[in-house]
Structure formats: C-alpha cells, structure tokens
C-alpha cells in the first residue's frame, strides 16, 4: 500500500484540491488551489471551529482517501495535540484529541469563545500554523513532513496552562479526596486530564468528606473524635459525648458557623458590594469593599473601636442596618469584627465607577487581628482560626493577601513568621500601608478570631475523656506540607526523644544534665536536647525536630505548642504543669496525641515558692529538680505508648516483614 501520491497522480490530486477549494474557506484567507474571491478578513478570535477548519485542509486533503486516515491522524497529532480549548482557555491535551482529525466532527466539550489573556502571544504562532497549511499542498510530501517535525516543538512551546492547575492545589496528599469531594468541576477535569497527578485519589472522592458538607456521614468524615467514657454533666452516652466534642472543636464547629452565615448587605446587581457574616460578626466576607484611610485615627490602641466614621467603610448594597446592629453582643477586639464593621455604610454609587478608589486590590484579602506574635500558644490560635476560616470560605489558595488589622502606629513582632507562607505567597501587609488612600478590595475576609467565646482554642470548654479532632490533625498536616517538613521515618530499634530546654528565667530544669544522662543509658532511646530560641534556630527547623520526635518532653510553657506538629503516634510529656494542667492536656487531646504529666508531687523539688511580680507566690515563677528514677519510669511508659501505637511506622514495617 502506498501512502504518498505518485508523479502520475499529480493532476488527479490537483483537481481534487480544486474541488476542496470551491467549497472550503478559512478565517485566514482563501483555500489553496483556488482563486481568491475576496481579500482575507482580519484575524478573528480563535474558536474551536477555526481549529477544525484549519486542520481539514492542506497536505492531508492532497492524499488519496485510503491514506488520509493514517496521515490525517499523524499530522493532526503533530500539529494540534498540543492545543485544546477548555473552559475558555487553550490548553495541552492528550493524543486522543487527534481522533477528531480523521472523521470526528462533534464539537469539543468546552468551546472556546475567545483567546484567553495570553491569547495575543499565541496568535502569531497560530498564523504561522495556518500559513504552513497553505504551503503544504505545494511542497513535496517528505518536505512537508520534515517541516512539521522541525516546527511542531516550537509551536507546541506556546502552551497555555490548564484552567484547572492541579499543581496549585498544594495540599497534603491525604486531603486531596476531601478537597475534591465538594468540587465536581475539578474532579471531572482530573478524570479527563491524563496529566492529573491525583487519579489514585478519585476512587475515594465520593466516600470522603470533611464533615461539614451536606449529607456527610461520620464514617466518611476526615476523622471523628473518640471518647473513652461519658460524663453526665456533658452527655449521657459515649456517642453523645463524641458528637458534642465534634461540635465544640472539630469540623462540627465549622458546620455550625457556616449555618450561621447571614447576608447583612445585599448586592443589588452584579458587581455591587455585599457583606455576609456569621453570628456576632465573628467571621465576615465582603465583596467590593470600600475603605477610606485618608484620615486614619492612629494612636497606641492596636484595636481602636472608633477607627471609622460613617461613610469610611462600606459599599453599594442594600444594608440591613438593624440586623448589623443586633450582632454587637460580642464586641471585643479579639472576639468579633463588630467594632470594625459597625460603621459599614450603604453607598449609593459604586466607588470604583465614581472614581473614589485610589487603589483597587484585586487579590482576595484576609484581614487579621493578631493575639501575640511572640508567644507560640497564642499566635497559633491565630493560625488555627485562619485555617478554619479557609474551610468556611471554601478555598485554600495561597494567592491571597494577608493584612494585619492594627489601628496603632506600632510595628508587630513575629517569631513565627515562616508560618504565613503556608497561607500566602506574598509578604504580609500592614493596614497602615494603605494610609492616605481610598482602597477598594474585590474580596475581603474577616476570619475567626483567637479569643472568641467558645472559640478555638484559647480557654475552649471541652468534653473530658475525648480526643482526636480531624480539624487539628488536618491543620497540622496542612502547615507541615506547605512548609515542606517531612517525616524521617524512625529506625526500627530506636525511639526518638526530644527534651525542650528553656533559656528563660523561670521553669528551668535544674538537674537537666542528670536526666539526659539517665536517658542515654537506654540503648534504644535516641536522645536530643534542643533550645527553640528563635535567635538560634529558625521556626521551620524547629518543626523538623518536633515532627521527627516520638516523645516530646518539656516544662509548662508556650514551647509545648509544638505538640500540634508531632506525628500521630507521639507522646507529649509535660514534665511539670505548674498547676495549669488543662492548657496543654486539652491541646494534646485536640491534636490527638497522648499526653502525660508528672504525677507524684513528693518527687518534684521546686527551687522556691515562686515570685510573681504582682501576685506573690506562684508555681510558674520558679525552677525545678526531678527525681531521676520517677522520671525514667515515665519516659519508659511514654516509649511503650509509642511502640504499641497502631500508626508507629517501625511496628508496621515489622509486621509487613
């Protein structure tokens, strides 16, 4: 069988080309082999129809019918497999798109109406491709083939990324099916796109939900708390206790907040402003928000309650002023956004249209009122609530601005600033950076706050005997994944012990060297002493140590907040809780790691009774020595918990062997 025309067939093929020319036109000019009937019109926006027309001409039409199927598919693959329209953008596709060149005439699933924002860069290459189609019939077949082989890599280099950019998810692998569960569009894209890296997760999408979605059942939720017993003061059964704990501090908390969302200022038409909040304005979402900072009333108060006057914050929407005023019961700097939004004003004209916006911020913006950037416990209340707010907002994108809402003229110290990169790709902005301007924010989020009543996780009342929330485990995984902190699997015969040293004035371990020496006498304990002073070790490096610890030991203090980033099988040992047992025990239960603390008061020796600057005697303001034998007994108990945990990697590897 011959796949190229012979010399004797030239006349026949010329006649064939003429017939094609009589009935075929393309947006870029007259067909080859026929007279020009009229001047070529200017290039039109690229559509799928044009792509079909371009590939129906040229060299392929000059081949015998029996050869067109093979070479039609071959050349179509070379020239067009690199392009496909998808949701209005031109994107790379798999080789199966080439089937359309050999008789498939159905329109593509998502027809492109116009070239996307990068289309102008692409258009010269498309013109070149059309010109080559015009030249093909006049060229020797092998010359045409060589030309396409040489030029196709160049033309293919002008690809435009898919509208679903899977690499931008940047989510922990375990979170992928839960993320896709409520996003059928992204799921369909992953099914259709052979380059989607998450295909192995697709089988779990329908049976995976965070817990707050409509119709999500506990057995499909990310994780559900476990209670060892019920307390009649809280619940009359274990199942009721678990459900209550889930509502208090897990994805049930997210579900309740989402159920409270209420529109306080309704857009009149597309492009108008809006304001939607949960109860007591603890979380709000605004669109096309107008903020006038030309005359900022800055002072020493970080969260001034009269920072705005009427007309200085608002938008064009129908404001329910009475409904907004009714949400002020929790008015307090770190409990609600009512003080900031109580002056929200209904504007009669869109600020941008009326020229009132000196600056338009297109990127979604999160405003943050921070607790304390120098204390890990308090600062991670900020981060946990930000992550929880992302669930309410339904987006984990890092293409967002984060603005510190601070009405003072001070700066802000932050020992844990590396953590922000888990939430944004940009530098943190201070509200005062917008001073002297009228700023319009396309989308603004006022997230949950760190000291809300019954909020997370400062002084949260919790059902006792319960532990293991999916929300805190997901937060830990999310931050570690985005900060690229990996688990270095423990050796089969070693348990990794980290003792946190304090370089502060109080709560130091007076016989620390003696305790370290005792632990090192146990051959299967791998012991290290660390001082997480930010001047000596960066926060990401601190997390690498924590996440690769099986037993984490420390005195009562903010450094124990590192327990959030321990592996699931780890034990946190609060060496002395200084009469504040519930603080880190509750946090460990929320995270789902085992908690221990010193139990025998007769075997711990305070340096003195403690000297608080104003309160007098206080156990947090002194230093301690510990009985070595009792200390080692508790360390061995902790190690036993690790070794028998079902998720302990060394145990799983041993069972596999």
UniProtKB/TrEMBL annotation:
<feature type="compositionally biased region" description="Pro residues">
    <location>
        <begin position="29"/>
        <end position="44"/>
    </location>
</feature>
<dbReference type="InterPro" id="IPR007657">
    <property type="entry name" value="Glycosyltransferase_61"/>
</dbReference>
<comment type="similarity">
    <text>Belongs to the glycosyltransferase 61 family.</text>
</comment>
<dbReference type="GO" id="GO:0005788">
    <property type="term" value="C:endoplasmic reticulum lumen"/>
</dbReference>
<keyword id="KW-0325">Glycoprotein</keyword>
<dbReference type="Pfam" id="PF04577">
    <property type="entry name" value="Glyco_transf_61"/>
</dbReference>
<protein>
    <recommendedName>
        <fullName>EGF domain-specific O-linked N-acetylglucosamine transferase</fullName>
        <ecNumber>2.4.1.255</ecNumber>
    </recommendedName>
</protein>
<keyword id="KW-0328">Glycosyltransferase</keyword>
<keyword id="KW-0732">Signal</keyword>
<dbReference type="GO" id="GO:0097363">
    <property type="term" value="F:protein O-acetylglucosaminyltransferase activity"/>
</dbReference>
<keyword id="KW-0808">Transferase</keyword>
<feature type="domain" description="Glycosyltransferase 61 catalytic">
    <location>
        <begin position="433"/>
        <end position="572"/>
    </location>
</feature>
<dbReference type="InterPro" id="IPR049625">
    <property type="entry name" value="Glyco_transf_61_cat"/>
</dbReference>
<keyword id="KW-0256">Endoplasmic reticulum</keyword>
<feature type="region of interest" description="Disordered">
    <location>
        <begin position="1"/>
        <end position="44"/>
    </location>
</feature>
<comment type="function">
    <text>Catalyzes the transfer of a single N-acetylglucosamine from UDP-GlcNAc to a serine or threonine residue in extracellular proteins resulting in their modification with a beta-linked N-acetylglucosamine (O-GlcNAc). Specifically glycosylates the Thr residue located between the fifth and sixth conserved cysteines of folded EGF-like domains.</text>
</comment>
């Amino acid at each position: 069988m011959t796949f190229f025309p012979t010399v004797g067939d030239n006349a026949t093929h010329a006649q064939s080309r003429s017939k094609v020319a009589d009935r075929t036109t393309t947006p870029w000019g007259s067909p080859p082999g026929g007279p020009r009937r009229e001047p070529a019109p200017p290039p039109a926006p690229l559509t799928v129809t044009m792509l079909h027309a371009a590939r129906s001409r040229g060299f392929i039409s000059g081949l015998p019918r029996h050869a067109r199927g093979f070479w039609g598919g071959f050349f179509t693959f070379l020239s067009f497999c690199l392009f496909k329209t998808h949701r209005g953008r031109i994107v790379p596709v798999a080789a199966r798109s080439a089937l359309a060149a050999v008789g498939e005439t159905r329109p593509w699933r998502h027809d492109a109406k116009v070239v996307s924002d990068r289309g102008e860069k692409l258009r010269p290459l498309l013109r070149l491709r059309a010109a080559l189609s015009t030249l093909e019939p006049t060229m020797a077949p092998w010359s045409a083939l060589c030309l396409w082989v040489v030029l196709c890599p160049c033309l293919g280099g002008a690809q435009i990324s898919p509208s679903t950019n899977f690499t931008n998810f940047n989510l922990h692998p375990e979170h992928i099916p839960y993320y896709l569960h409520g996003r059928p569009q992204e799921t369909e894209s992953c099914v259709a796109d052979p380059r989607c890296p998450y295909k192995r997760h697709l089988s779990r999408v329908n049976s995976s939900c965070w817990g707050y979605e409509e119709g999500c059942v506990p057995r499909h939720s990310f994780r559900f708390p476990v209670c060892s017993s019920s307390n009649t003061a809280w619940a009359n059964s274990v199942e009721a206790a678990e459900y209550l704990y889930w509502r208090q501090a897990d994805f049930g908390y997210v579900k309740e907040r989402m159920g409270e969302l209420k529109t306080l200022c309704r857009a009149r038409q597309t492009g108008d402003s809006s304001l939607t909040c949960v109860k007591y304005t603890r979380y709000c979402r605004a669109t096309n928000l107008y903020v006038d900072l030309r005359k900022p009333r800055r002072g020493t108060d970080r969260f001034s309650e009269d920072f705005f006057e009427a007309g200085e914050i608002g938008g064009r929407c129908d404001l329910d002023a009475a409904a907004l005023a009714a949400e002020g019961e929790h008015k307090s700097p770190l409990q609600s956004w009512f003080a900031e939004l109580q002056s929200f004003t209904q504007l009669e004209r869109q600020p941008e249209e009326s020229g009132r916006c000196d600056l338009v911020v297109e990127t979604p913006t999160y405003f943050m009122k921070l607790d304390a950037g120098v204390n890990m416990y308090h600062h991670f209340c900020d981060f946990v609530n930000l992550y929880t707010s992302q669930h309410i907002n339904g987006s984990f994108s890092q293409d967002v601005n984060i603005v510190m809402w601070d009405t003072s003229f001070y700066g802000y110290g932050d020992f844990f600033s590396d953590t922000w990169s888990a939430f944004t790709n940009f530098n943190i902005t201070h509200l005062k950076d917008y001073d002297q301007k009228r700023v319009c924010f396309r989308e603004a989020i006022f997230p949950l706050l760190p000291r809300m009543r019954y909020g997370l996780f400062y002084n949260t009342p919790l059902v006792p005997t319960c532990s293991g929330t999916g929300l805190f485990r997901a937060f830990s995984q999310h931050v570690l994944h985005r900060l690229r902190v990996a688990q270095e699997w423990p050796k089969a015969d070693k348990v990794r012990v980290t003792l946190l040293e304090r370089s502060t004035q109080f709560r130091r371990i007076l016989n620390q060297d003696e305790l370290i020496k005792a632990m090192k006498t146990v051959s299967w304990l791998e012991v290290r002493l660390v001082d997480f002073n930010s001047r000596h070790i960066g926060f990401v490096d601190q997390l690498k140590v924590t996440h690769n610890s099986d037993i984490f030991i420390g005195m009562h203090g903010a450094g124990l907040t590192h327990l959030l980033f321990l592996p699931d099988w780890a034990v946190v040992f609060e060496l002395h809780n200084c009469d504040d047992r519930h603080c880190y025990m509750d946090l460990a239960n929320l995270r789902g790691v085992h908690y221990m603390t010193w139990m025998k008061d007769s075997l711990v020796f305070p340096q003195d009774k403690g000297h608080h600057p104003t309160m007098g005697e206080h156990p947090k303001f002194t230093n301690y020595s510990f009985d070595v034998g009792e200390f080692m007994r508790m360390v061995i108990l902790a190690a036993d918990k690790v070794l028998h945990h079902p998720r302990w990697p060394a145990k799983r590897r041993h069972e596999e062997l």
